[in-house]
Amino acid sequence: METFKLYNGVDMPCIGFGTDRTFVFIRKNILAGMVDFLKDITIGHGYHWKRDTSIIKIVKKAPQYDCHLFDTSSAYGQSERVLGKCLKKYSRDEYFIVTKLSNQEQREGDVRKALMRSLKHLNVDCVDLYLMHWPQTDTYLECWKQMEQLYKEGLARAIGVCNFKEHHFEELMKSAEIKPMVCQIESHPLFSQNKMLKYCKKNSIQMMAYTPTGRMDKRIRESEVLRTIAEIHHKDVAQVIMRWHYQRGVIPIANTTNLEHLQSNMNIFDFCLEQSEMESIDNMNIECRLRYDPDTVDFTKC
């Protein structure tokens, strides 16, 4: 797996797998967990059960298919536990773990406690990258100071942020001692975030992309631009998009419940997009955000 080097010298895989929210492990409240499970297998036709078990299968196999970067969050249900259980058969240097400080944990105010809980669930002594999930008003500045201390102690090899806009960075840097090493934001052909990418590159911040294929929105799935490029390179549309991210210097985090799709997402290093093709994909941008806007979101619901 090829890597991008963060400004502090840490090598980070250039593409990764996002676990999203999972439910399979029994929670501390066993009764609530069983109620959720029964609702899922009856009313929900086992959607979460099937989805979660497929994720377990994918995570166990992923390093064998050259996927070594795993993105999760304490806000994603039992996702950290899934990773901790599934990756324990691999040596620690075979995978790169990213987890996040949730908004609820920001409100609780004890970042050390939050990270230690995540480390226990992940079954590791330190995370490779610890991110602040959202720039929650009134909490993110103080929480960043605590993250800096945890980084200094070696509990995280790198620290960064998610869902920041330029004004959040400017406010943070008024009091920060350590500049974020990574910024994870929504980015895909309908919402390229090229302005934020330029800002990140100017400030030596590595950009990551979630929702990198735009959830295969119809406007992406049926795009003549993407279809034509895919045919030229004998690839599918998702592979073209993942390659577009890579050539921009962005780390895409893809989510799938299909092992074949994971293999396909990783198979983007045997072709190269021409500059004209890169520009054609850039021109698809219509500033269409598919997820929450950090300036307007209700932080208690994300």
From TrEMBL:
The active site is at Y76. Coiled coil: none annotated. The record marks K100 as: Lowers pKa of active site Tyr. InterPro entries: AKR (IPR020471), Aldo/ket_reductase_CS (IPR018170), NAD(P)_OxRdtase_dom_sf (IPR036812), NADP_OxRdtase_dom (IPR023210). Residues 50-285 form the NADP-dependent oxidoreductase domain. It comes from the Bacteria. Pfam families: Aldo_ket_red (PF00248). Keywords: NADP, Oxidoreductase. GO terms for molecular function: oxidoreductase activity, acting on the CH-OH group of donors, NAD or NADP as acceptor. Substrate binds at H133. Belongs to the aldo/keto reductase family. This is Aldo/keto reductase. It comes from Roseburia porci. The lineage of its organism: Bacteria, Bacillati, Bacillota, Clostridia, Lachnospirales.
